[in-house]
């Protein structure tokens, strides 16, 4: 730990200097900046990324080797902060890397949770166990508490009419009021410095943590009430204690709502403080900063900015609204109904009474303008579709509606997803504002997801292309196409895959005591949050089927088979019963298959617990086949699919999310596709409802369910819920896709027998992944939504001396 800390502090010192220079330069240049607000940032380990970005890896290796240390081992000592659930938080982290690399003036804003996403282990029964992730009990050198930035954030209280100090009159039409919060919590800034690759520009990720206004109540303390004396502190700190462990699901807890407001209130205060430092009026906010709302979690920023402009800055409502809409843009990351946040009006009124009034006013003005007031059914229907406030089991505020109305641009994250939001989810808004809805396809940073995690492949690409420009501009990878058929190149390419597989093989041996082969074995990997729509269940059921088939085979037939190691990893939200059952089933199946002597090394199923960014960095370079098999129309984009192709894995995928972009860019002949198209899903679902999914299910799957019900994998009662769902309505249409999924697996096995074809597909996949860089994504955002430009720091003497 000592060497790790010492190494990290030297990097931090260097970054602090660069960061100071960068911030000063941005101020001097008065450049427009982007502020990316996200409730999650899943950063992964920091040290290696920073050393690589600063181009200091060789120097550090040498210096440390001279003292008897290996840099790679030092990297391994770092913890992996888990301040995010999945793709949404990891995307935000990739964006920060790109923004710094391409010299964009940018800030990330999020929360510094005391406890990250829970640590997952697997119990003796195969079940998921959860433990608190107390990541802050170890020093974390890359986060700096900024004592100068402490902001009081109010909650609850009352709203009073605004009285003009001169005329002593209250004017209704000014829409102005005075909010008097009854509680305050302090937002403390903690800064993580974000280095770019091959540049001095160093940006900021500012994470807020909560502190009490009064750390200790002295009166209570001196009367011996020690518990009471710290009560306020504990209550306040509680606010940023925990990251809610849900992915693609809304969390209806009051504390979560408070976290969301805390994040946006502190952030807006900070942005406006910087604007005022430049002595610029608030009317200039849209020229000073673009603010991107990463999903609906930060959409309370819209009424908060209106409150600041109207109530505090005395700006007239319509002007304030214009500033607000011009400043914000909103990204939708999911269309799953359970993930679209809706907060009860009662709860908002209690915690943020003034904001509720503002939301109502925004809604009223919007409806006045955009729907007829008539009482006929059609106009009522339109109003209820457009209204931010929904009357269902309760009166609720639809946060996605607020995001759409309060932003000048709304984007989806892949073409199919953006079309769905434009034509279905938000069709009523897109007919009012056709130009507001745009697509910005996700991307991943090639620095972490190829250059750093797969150094051998990175070297091969650089030496083949005779340049490392691709690290900065991924479109250069297209030149690899020329080498896709080249035998010598293919051999080198394949050898690197073997090398990465060996690393994974060692990990599996150490962790599970399990021996798996490398050379003639297909590594088939599905790693992501466990969710019904992502269909890990279909994956495991297919291997139960394969297992049963193998058991029926003669020794001769077995010899013809390809060997396969199936790896699955991912966490389930602790409250998501079906997902937890799927994990249990995977582990039970794995136990039976891996211990069956008749199967030997023909098939192994491994569940890797506690999936993290670090584990992804180990698995992705070692994968032959990567599975992205969501029900069409459900996965907004997916980003791990991009990381895998980039590292030479071949996709086994459905026609969903960014799989479609992969297909388009590398050709369907280089992807193992199966299943139906999104446009066919509703018909299949309807058939399931009308005829019963069991009656439509292929015999192969019926047989698999039968074996589970016979108790082959333990008491079938433990899987009742997921089995019933499959036999009943099968919402994610596993039954319908099962046969073509098995067929795609057959094609994979056949292709594996032909190495030239296999490695050609693998190389073409990587060569055709230039579009998958987050550098391309950020350029799209910068040009079409944010209107910001790069602002590279001029090379400064003092900086170069540090090299
Ligand atoms: C997600 C979507 O489910 C992914 O398809 C998408 O790639 C990602 C980033 O846009 O956003 N939405 C979400 O809440 N999480 C995601 O991964 O966590």
Automatic annotation (TrEMBL):
TM stretches of this protein: none
Key word Heme present: no
Superkingdom per UniProt: Eukaryota
Cofactor requirement: pyridoxal 5'-phosphate
Protein name stated in the entry: Alpha-1,4 glucan phosphorylase
Reaction(s) catalysed by this chain's protein: [(1->4)-alpha-D-glucosyl](n) + phosphate = [(1->4)-alpha-D-glucosyl](n-1) + alpha-D-glucose 1-phosphate
Native species: Anaeramoeba flamelloides
Keywords of this entry: Carbohydrate metabolism, Coiled coil, Glycosyltransferase, Pyridoxal phosphate, Transferase
Assigned protein family: Belongs to the glycogen phosphorylase family.
One of the Pfam families matching this protein, by short name: Phosphorylase
InterPro entries in UniProt: Glycg_phsphrylas (IPR011833), Glyco_trans_35 (IPR000811), Pyridoxal_P_attach_site (IPR035090)
Keyword check for Cell cycle: no
EC number: 2.4.1.1
Matches recorded under CDD domains: GT35_Glycogen_Phosphorylase
Role of this protein: Allosteric enzyme that catalyzes the rate-limiting step in glycogen catabolism, the phosphorolytic cleavage of glycogen to produce glucose-1-phosphate, and plays a central role in maintaining cellular and organismal glucose homeostasis.
């Amino acid at each position: 730990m000592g060497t790790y800390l010492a190494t990290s502090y030297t990097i931090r010192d260097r970054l602090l200097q660069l960061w100071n220079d960068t911030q000063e330069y941005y101020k001097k240049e008065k450049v427009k900046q982007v502020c990316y607000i996200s409730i999650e940032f899943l950063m992964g380990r920091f040290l290696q990324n920073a050393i690589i970005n600063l181009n200091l890896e060789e120097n550090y290796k040498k210096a440390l080797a001279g003292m008897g240390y290996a840099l790679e081992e030092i990297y391994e000592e770092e913890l992996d902060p888990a301040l995010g659930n999945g793709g949404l938080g990891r995307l935000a982290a990739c964006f920060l890397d790109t923004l710094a690399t391409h010299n964009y003036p940018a800030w990330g804003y999020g929360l510094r949770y005391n406890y990250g996403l829970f640590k997952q282990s697997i119990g003796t029964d195969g079940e998921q166990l959860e433990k608190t992730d107390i990541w802050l009990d170890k020093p974390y050198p890359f986060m700096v508490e900024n004592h100068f930035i402490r902001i009081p954030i109010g909650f609850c209280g009352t709203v009073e009419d605004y009285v003009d100090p001169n005329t002593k009159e209250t004017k209704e039409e000014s829409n102005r009021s005075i909010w008097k919060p009854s509680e305050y919590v302090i937002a403390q800034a903690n800064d993580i410095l974000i280095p770019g690759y091959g540049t001095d520009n160093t940006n900021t990720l500012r994470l807020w943590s909560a502190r009490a206004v009064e750390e200790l109540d002295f009166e209570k303390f001196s009367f011996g009430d020690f518990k009471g004396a710290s009560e306020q502190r504990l209550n306040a700190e509680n606010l940023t204690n925990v990251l809610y462990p849900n992915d693609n699901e809304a969390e209806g807890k009051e504390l979560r709502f408070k976290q969301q407001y805390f994040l946006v209130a502190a952030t807006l205060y900070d942005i406006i403080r910087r604007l005022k430092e430049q002595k610029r009026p608030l009317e200039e906010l849209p020229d000073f900063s673009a603010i991107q709302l990463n999903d609906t979690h930060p959409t309370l920023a819209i009424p908060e900015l209106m409150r600041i402009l109207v109530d505090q800055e005395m700006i007239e409502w319509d002007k304030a609204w214009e500033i607000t809409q011009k400043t914000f843009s909103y990204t939708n990351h999911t269309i799953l109904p359970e993930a679209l946040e809706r907060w009860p009006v009662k709860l908002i009124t209690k915690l943020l009474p003034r904001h509720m009034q503002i939301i109502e006013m925004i809604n009223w003005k919007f409806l006045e303008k955009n729907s007829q007031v008539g009482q006929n059914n059609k106009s009522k229907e339109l109003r209820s579709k457009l209204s931010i406030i929904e009357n269902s089991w309760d009166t609720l505020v639809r946060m996605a509606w607020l995001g759409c109305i309060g932003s000048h641009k709304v984007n989806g994250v892949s073409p199919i997803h953006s079309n769905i939001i434009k034509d279905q989810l938000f069709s009523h808004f897109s007919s009012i504002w056709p130009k507001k809805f745009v697509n910005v396809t996700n991307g991943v940073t090639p620095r972490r997801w190829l250059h750093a995690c797969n150094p051998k492949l990175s070297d091969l690409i650089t030496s083949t292309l005779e340049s490392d420009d691709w690290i900065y501009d991924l479109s250069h990878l297209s030149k690899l196409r020329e080498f896709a058929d080249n035998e010598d190149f293919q051999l080198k390419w394949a050898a690197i895959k073997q090398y990465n597989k060996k690393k994974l093989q060692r990990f599996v041996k150490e962790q599970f005591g399990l021996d798996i082969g490398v050379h003639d074995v297909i590594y088939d990997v599905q790693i992501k949050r466990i969710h019904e729509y992502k269909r890990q269940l279909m994956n495991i059921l297919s291997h139960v089927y394969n297992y049963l088939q193998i058991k029926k085979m003669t020794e001769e037939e077995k010899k013809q088979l390809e060997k396969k190691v199936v790896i699955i990893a991912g966490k389930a939200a602790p409250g998501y019963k079906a997902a937890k059952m799927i994990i249990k089933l995977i582990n039970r199946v794995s136990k039976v298959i891996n211990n069956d002597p008749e199967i030997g090394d023909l098939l192994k199923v491994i569940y890797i617990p506690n999936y993290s960014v670090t584990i992804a960095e180990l698995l992705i370079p070692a994968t032959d086949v990567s599975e992205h098999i969501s029900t069409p129309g459900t996965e907004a984009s997916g980003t791990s699919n991009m990381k895998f192709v980039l590292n030479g894995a071949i996709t086994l995928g459905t026609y969903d999310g960014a799989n479609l972009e992969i297909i388009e860019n590398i050709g369907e002949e280089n992807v193992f596709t199966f299943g139906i198209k999104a446009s066919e899903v509703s018909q299949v679902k309807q058939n399931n409802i009308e005829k019963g999914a069991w009656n439509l299910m292929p015999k192969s799957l019926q047989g698999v369910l039968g074996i589970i019900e016979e108790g082959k994998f333990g008491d079938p009662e433990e899987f009742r819920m997921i089995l019933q769902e499959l036999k009943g309505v099968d919402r994610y249409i596993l039954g319908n896709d099962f046969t073509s999924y098995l067929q795609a697996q057959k094609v994979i096995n056949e292709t594996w027998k032909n190495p030239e074809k296999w490695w050609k597909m693998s190389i073409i996949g990587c060569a055709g992944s230039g579009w998958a860089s987050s550098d391309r994504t950020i350029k799209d955002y910068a040009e079409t939504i944010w209107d910001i430009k790069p602002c590279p720091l001029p090379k400064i003497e003092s900086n170069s001396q540090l090299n």
